[in-house]
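Morning. Coffee machine broken again, so started the prediction first thing and wrote up yesterday's gels while waiting. Chain of 255 residues, entered below exactly as on the submission form.
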Amino acid sequence: MISSQVLIKDGSTAALTPDRLTLTRDSGRVRVEIPLAVVQRADLSGETGIRVRLTDEAVHSIPGGNATATAAFLAALNAALPEERDPAGSTLVTTEVNEGTRSWVWWSAGSAFLLAYIGYVVWVGLAHEGFDAVAAFFSVPIALLGLACVGALIGKALDRVALARRGITVVATKGYHPNGRAKRYFAYTDAHGNEHLSDSSGAGQTAHIIYLPESPGTNVARLPLPWVVLKYTVSLVIGLGILVFGALGLALPFI
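Came back before lunch.
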């Protein structure tokens, strides 16, 4: 089976799947889903661009990375178009805008944190003993690791609570690779016919997976309550232990 093609140019991508064309812009902030049934035709726009015309004459432009990739993508797109078109055109096109934090905000915050981290370690080394500087150097990532562990655990616990209240249980199965080896993840289909993957561990070929109807990708394996309580308690103790150990290292120069 030939892999689906993806055309990439700067922060824009175009992905071709069996039934739709997915366009993303602004590094994934804007996502456009175009069913192939509403695409009238596609042709070149310059040497490295594609112009997609819908059945209602609306036009979407796709920037191409290079001439070879653009030509191959255009050929694959035209070959994938169905014989019967839907005249609905743009009314079947969906656009999602993710108003999340822009990448420059993360870069700025990361740079500020790195400078503060280096400045703190240098200050400790100049104002205190060398051992305190070494402790400060290692304590920051340790504390961050502990904080991340605790935060992830809280998020998973909240998901468990929501799934216990509103979750739907289904039988998920493991598929097989062409060489006959079982795949790592369990797969299940939600009520709308969409397939999702679950990274829940298990030696068998089937597992009971609970997913949220409003967010079918959110899922966990159904486990006995005592085991869930034990698992999360142990994980919380370990996460808090790492966080406290890192915090003590940060506080060492002031003790």
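The chain has four helices and 13 strands. Going to sketch it on the whiteboard this afternoon.
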